[in-house]
Specification:
By secondary structure, the protein is an alpha/beta fold. The protein has 16 helices and 20 strands. It binds ligand BES, manganese (II) ion (MN) and zinc ion.
Length: about 450
């Protein structure tokens, strides 16, 4: 994780920032000297977002920053790399989400290439506020790093090491079933997806918290590379598939945040990790798998592998009867057709949870949209020879049929929320740089805080 932070408690040599929208700027210009006005005119500053102007007086230098005052990530998200390296401060009151935009905008993936520069730093004097923004920023960085790291350095065993290290740091209990142990534990679906890879599949578990707190279980799809299996993807379809462990990255980073913020919950993190690869022992179309729940699944398409990892993990999650189960997965292209790449598709039976999550998504610039668990589409998952097929017979409603598939593996699905996420920014916008992204994670954290946190 990054040692460098763009959020500092005390800036010794800070440049003052003055944040102005176009109206503020008009007022400000009235009291400015002619010389200053000339200088600013040269920098074509009008107070619009993205504009900056440097102002020199006899004894100080400060920077005018155009902004829209919006309470969102974008307001300051362009500044960490839009301003020269150094420390900055302001007397103006900045909100948590605006400061988070600064933190999130300071990310760069530099594991394989040294960074060109450091991000600019902002002073946050309020310790409680800074610690919270820092914890969220750090968790977002963790999710992004895990996703951006290529499959050769982020295989199932690497994911296991990440979680193991996290467990040791936080005094959590760690366990893992690897390779054939999965068969002993009746996780035939996870095993089938991952067995063709040189790095065996596994189901990784972390448990943390007091046993008198409510049980929350987080599950994440950890396909470290999705070639499609024998139903091989095209070159273009495979190109970004290092990100197919995005759901796992989000669940891991959310677990990190929950522990870091000491949320009064009993946390269980379950990560099924596998590489969907090809070899002589790869699972095939037509194979029938026996899952943890006891249901049999006929393989129609080896590229519908995510739901196979999740079905065993969700069955195991459900056995403990937790108060809430949340899963995250880069599950279907169909979810991307439905809501695009910036919005996470959400599925749940609970109107109350859906509404609260939706609101948190809006106020935290982490947009979610609910899709229905339309029961009648279950007919598309019928198999003539097994309890279910893994891929629906029709090309329609692919995100919904994937979610309905998962639902079969829960005894009680009233407390379950499923997110079908992109986990990737296709291009850079303020606060959200191109590459891996911890989508839905901040909205869920805010919901958990609202529901289970001490006030
Ligand atoms: N990991 C993919 C889904 C995916 C593809 C997410 C592209 C984001 C971008 C998943 O394993 C997959 O291949 N899904 C198939 C399912 C189909 C075979 C039923 C899909 O969506 O095409
Ligand atoms: Mn696939
Ligand atoms: Zn996949």
């Amino acid at each position: 994780m990054k040692a460098f932070s763009s959020l500092v408690s005390k800036a010794d040599q800070a440049t003052e920032l003055v944040l102005l929208d176009p109206t503020d700027y008009e007022k400000w210009a009235k009291s400015a000297s002619t010389k200053q006005k000339e200088l600013i005119a040269k920098q074509s500053f009008e107070g619009k977002r993205g504009q900056k102007a440097w102002v020199q007086t006899e004894d100080t230098t400060y920077v005018l920053i155009g902004w829209d005052k919006k309470n969102d990530l974008a307001a300051l998200g362009h500044l960490p790399f839009g301003l020269p390296e150094g420390q900055y401060r302001t007397n103006q009151k900045l909100s948590e989400i605006q400061l988070l935009g600064w933190g999130m905008g300071a990310y760069s993936f530099d594991r394989y290439k040294s960074p060109k520069r450091f991000p600019a730093q902002i002073e946050i004097r309020d310790d409680a506020l800074r610690e919270k923004v820092q914890a969220i920023t750090e968790s977002v960085f963790l999710a992004r790093d895990l996703i951006n790291t290529p499959a050769s350095d982020m295989s199932p065993s690497h994911i296991e090491s990440e979680i193991h290290a996290m467990a040791e740091k936080q005094d959590a209990v760690f366990s893992c079933w690897t390779g054939d142990e999965l068969l002993d534990q009746n996780c035939g679906a996870i095993h089938a997806v991952g067995r063709a890879s040189v790095d065996p599949p596994r189901l990784i578990e972390l448990k943390w918290g007091h046993n008198n707190h409510p049980k929350i279980c987080l599950v994440g799809k950890g396909v470290t590379f999705d070639s499609g299996g024998l139903d091989l993807k095209s070159a273009a379809g495979m190109r970004q598939m290092k990100k197919d462990m995005g759901g796992a990255a989000i669940a891991i980073a959310l677990a990190h945040l929950i522990m870091k913020r000491n949320l009064p919950v009993q946390l269980r993190l379950l990560i099924p990790a596998a590489e969907n690869s090809i070899s002589g022992n790869a699972f095939r179309p037509g194979d029938i798998l026996t899952t943890r729940k006891g249901l049999t699944v006929e393989i129609d398409n080896t590229d519908a592998e995510g739901r196979l990892l999740l079905c065993d993990a969700l069955a195991l999650a459900d056995e403990e009867k937790p108060e809430l189960i949340v899963d995250f997965a880069t599950l279907t292209g169909a979810a991307r057709s439905a809501v695009g790449t910036e919005i996470s598709a959400m599925f749940t039976h609970s109107d109350l949870i859906a509404e609260k999550l939706y609101k948190q998504g809006e106020s935290n610039a982490d947009p979610l949209w609910r899709l229905p668990l339309h029961e009648s589409y279950n007919k598309m998952l019928e198999s003539k020879v097994a309890d279910l097929v893994n891929s629906a017979s029709s090309g329609y409603a692919g995100a919904i049929t994937a979610a309905l598939f998962l639902k079969n593996f829960l005894e009680d699905s009233s407390n379950w929320v499923h997110f079908d996420v992109m986990a990737y920014n296709l291009n850079t916008t303020p606060g959200k740089p191109e590459g891996g992204e911890g989508m839905a994670m901040r909205a869920v954290f805010a919901y958990l805080e609202e529901t289970y946190g001490q006030t």
